[in-house]
Specification:
- The chain is an alpha/beta fold and 506 residues long.
- 48% of the residues lie in helices and 11% in strands.
- The protein is built from 17 helices and ten strands.
- Helix 1 runs antiparallel to helix 5 (112-142) and helix 10 (273-285) crosses helix 12.
- The longest helix has 31 residues, at 112-142.
- The chain starts with 26 loop residues before the first helix and ends with a strand.
């Protein structure tokens, strides 16, 4: 039986020798499988999960498989007699070779026990044909078929196509025994029980957030959203910083001189890596980033700045500040980092600045964002790491009296809410209160103005240095609001401790 066409052609026969070769196919396997399906519909159970009509090289075989599949899944009998009647009714009997060809298929049948193997041979041949088509596309692009794509974009497009082929068409999955699922659940519970604070995932560096979520969990896509000025980037860097510290601490607990195997990748599409590093240094040294940029600091401040930088340089933090990075390039760099240094967390700031895979042309911005969020979720699952993606919110928030964000504020951005395992909003009442300071000209007399000013000042004092982290969706836990401490001068978030004399801590 000739499974994949003739052997290799002699060297030099066309580009890669492809012009002298037949595409991988196995007509005998296709005929034998269809014959088995017609003879015994139970054979479908062995191929129905992974085989589709387009996997057959002969379109007639694909059409016959579709008819068999439709009847079996509808609970009807699919044999040579019922298919002949169906094709006659639809006027397609001659197109599938007539009654004689259906009878010929029955004579080529194999046993039910071999049906799965024949189905895999058919699927494998189809996969090889897809790889040949992909290779020809790569060659044609390299020769200038799509001049708008430069070499790097072509490389990203090729990798995206390979990823899509492996993701969408791999015949994997299946049932996991309940015994095995229980063992995994017990392992997770044991990890939470043995860790301080009941954290089974990666620590975020924020005590109350970890208590509410159990930490950052593998394969989760976490959306952190808010309006401009709320502090999304500051909170994301706090989480990345806290996670990197937890990774380093765990490695140093075992060996004080250990280099941690793992780390945090930050894709900063809005800020350069040195700006992000300056922000982290400002947060930790408690020296205003604005003063650092202007050089308006004392010698002791600079010395502290340098001292903190030495403490932080061992943290496993990796920053990529490529603007408008594509989802395929981000995936490639995450894979490489995981392979070379290890990877425990990915932070993306922010997803509306990303682009879909090179070579794709979404019909709308909504579809484009949907492709990006689906890609980020796929990366989280493939690499088994949490992915924290920042997102802007629609302006609808500004038109409401209560400006706390809601899930509906994300809906204009495609499938963000649906793809995310957790959605969090950052909100600071102080930001909006500062814009509503009473003006004397708006009041009839000074007494009313004074009362309004007193109330405003009281509200400002109540909201000062406070933020709300609203967990609006959590697939594996409760929703609710977490109070955080926020130092505007250093754009620094921390835990809000209201139980011990109003003090604040990390």
């Amino acid at each position: 039986m000739n499974t994949f066409g003739p052997g290799p052609s002699p060297a030099g026969e066309g580009l890669f020798g492809l012009s002298q070769r037949l595409p991988p196919a196995n007509m005998e396997a296709e005929q034998a499988l269809l014959g088995a399906l017609l003879a015994n519909n139970k054979a479908y159970e062995r191929v129905g999960e992974f085989l589709a009509a387009e996997h057959f090289v002969d379109p007639i075989h694909g059409r016959i498989f579709t008819a068999i599949q439709r009847r079996i899944e509808a609970g009807q009998l699919a044999d040579a007699v019922t298919l002949r009647a169906e094709f006659e009714h639809n006027g397609l009997l001659d197109e599938v070779g007539g009654p004689a060809y259906l009878a010929q298929l029955l004579s080529a049948m194999v046993g039910v026990i071999n049906a799965g193997e024949y189905g895999r041979v058919i699927h494998d041949a189809w996969m090889r044909r897809q790889l040949i088509d992909l290779g020809e596309t790569v060659v044609n692009r390299a020769f200038g078929a799509e001049p708008e794509l430069d070499a790097l974009q072509q490389l990203e497009a090729a990798e995206q196509s390979l990823f899509d082929l492996s993701k969408d068409n791999a015949a994997q999955g299946g049932f996991v025994s309940f015994e095995r699922a229980l063992a995994t659940a017990v392992d997770h519970a044991a990890a939470a029980f043995s860790n301080p604070g009941g954290v089974s995932g990666l620590s975020s560096g924020l005590r109350d957030l970890d208590r509410k979520t159990g930490g950052l969990h593998k394969s989760d896509l976490i959306i952190l959203a808010g309006r401009p000025g709320m502090g999304k980037t500051a909170l994301a860097t706090k989480v990345a910083f806290g996670a990197a510290r937890a990774i380093l601490r765990k490695a140093r607990d075992e060996n004080p001189n250990a280099v941690p195997r793992g780390g945090v990748a930050i894709f900063s599409l809005e800020m350069s890596c040195d700006q992000l590093a300056t922000r982290l240094l400002a947060e930790e040294s408690r020296i205003s980033g604005d003063r650092i940029r202007r050089g308006d600091i004392l010698q002791r401040d600079f010395d502290k700045f340098v001292e903190v930088s030495r403490e932080l340089q061992s943290l496993p933090l990796y920053i990529d500040d490529t603007p408008a990075i594509t989802i395929s390039a981000l995936r490639t760099r995450c894979r490489r980092l995981q392979r070379t240094r290890g990877l425990d967390l990915v932070v993306v700031d922010y997803l509306q600045l990303m682009r879909p895979a090179a070579g794709t042309r979404p019909e709308s911005r909504v579809l484009e964002i949907s492709m990006i969020t689906q890609g980020l979720k796929a990366i989280a699952k493939e690499l088994a790491v949490p992915v924290v993606a920042l997102s802007q919110l629609s302006r609808a928030v500004e038109s409401r009296e209560d400006k706390r964000p809601q899930l509906s504020d994300l809906r204009e951005s495609g499938s963000i809410e649906q793809d995310a395992d957790m959605v969090m909003f950052i909100y600071r009442d102080e930001y909006y209160l500062a814009q509503r300071q009473p003006k004397e000209m708006g009041f009839d007399n000074s007494e009313k103005f004074g009362a309004a000013m007193d109330k405003w000042q009281k509200d400002m004092e109540e909201a000062h240095n406070k933020a709300e982290l609203i967990i609006a969706k959590q697939r594996h836990g409760p929703t609710g609001t977490i109070k955080l401490f926020f130092e505007g001068e250093f754009t620094r978030f921390g835990d809000l401790d209201t139980q011990h004399d109003g003090g604040y801590g990390d």
